[in-house]
Amino acid sequence: MYERILIPTDGSETAELAVEEALDIAEKFDAEVYTLYVVDTDAAELSLGTEQVERIRSGRFGEMEELEARAREATEHVAARGRERGIDVAEHFRGGRPHDVIADFAEDHDVDLVVMGSHGRSGVRRMLLGSVTERVLRSTHRSVLVVDEREVE
Ligand code: ATP
Ligand code: MN
């Protein structure tokens, strides 16, 4: 039923909960798994110049090793969890607006299930959903499984 599963991650604990559920499903359906970290260029614009933001958007991180390191750390974590269970995870990172990049990636790779957290690194917990998840739900016709951090011990 599910052939290609996308796990967007911001490296947060809630995203990690989503990883476990996604891998359970992947195992069951023998699905291909992708993980994607998006360097948020809207947030980056506050601290970086427009030239740097443009470079991030086109995937050339150059000397911005810190951004790249954070991205790699997040996706490597997902890949490591996969490896422990014998599941290959393809790691990707991109620059842009997270929800746009996630929705585009799902289209481009013909993903049939996106599994993501209800919250991430920065959110206000009063909100039912973080803004990235809410916007992904609004911008894709693909199936999305939202793993709620409060439902898990
Ligand atoms: P907000 O960002 O609105 O302040 P938040 O950080 O709590 O709130 P979201 O950012 O919506 O919530 O995060 C929810 C889920 O979205 C995460 O668990 C993760 O799966 C995904 N996600 C969030 N940011 C990114 C990102 N930059 N790249 C990839 N996936 C992301
Ligand atoms: Mn967030």
Describe this protein with a few key phrases.
5 strands; binds adenosine-5'-triphosphate; binds manganese (II) ion; 6 helices; 153 residues; five-stranded parallel beta sheet; Rossmann fold
Can you put this structure into words, describing what you see?
Helix content is 47%, strand content 21%. β4, α6 and β5 (143-147) form a beta-alpha-beta unit. It contains six helices and five strands. A five-stranded parallel beta sheet has the order 3-2-1-4-5, with helices on both faces. With 153 residues, it is an alpha/beta fold. The model has no long low-confidence stretch (mean pLDDT 92). The chain has one domain: Rossmann fold (3-Layer(aba) Sandwich), CATH 3.40.50.620. α5 (98-108) crosses α6. Bound molecules: adenosine-5'-triphosphate and manganese (II) ion.
Weakly predicted, low-confidence segments: none
Estimate percent helicity: 40-55%
Please indicate the percent range of residues in DSSP E strands (runs of 2 or more).
Answer: 15-25%
**Mean of residue pLDDT values:** 92
> What is the CATH top level name?
Alpha Beta
Strand order of the largest sheet: 3-2-1-4-5
Question: Can you tell me the CATH superfamily?
Answer: HUPs
Q: How far is the first residue's CA from the last residue's CA?
A: 28 Å
Number of discrete domains: 1
Say how many strands there are.
5
CATH fold-level topology: Rossmann fold
Give the overall form: globular
Question: From the alpha-carbon coordinates, what is the Rg to the nearest angstrom?
Answer: 15 Å
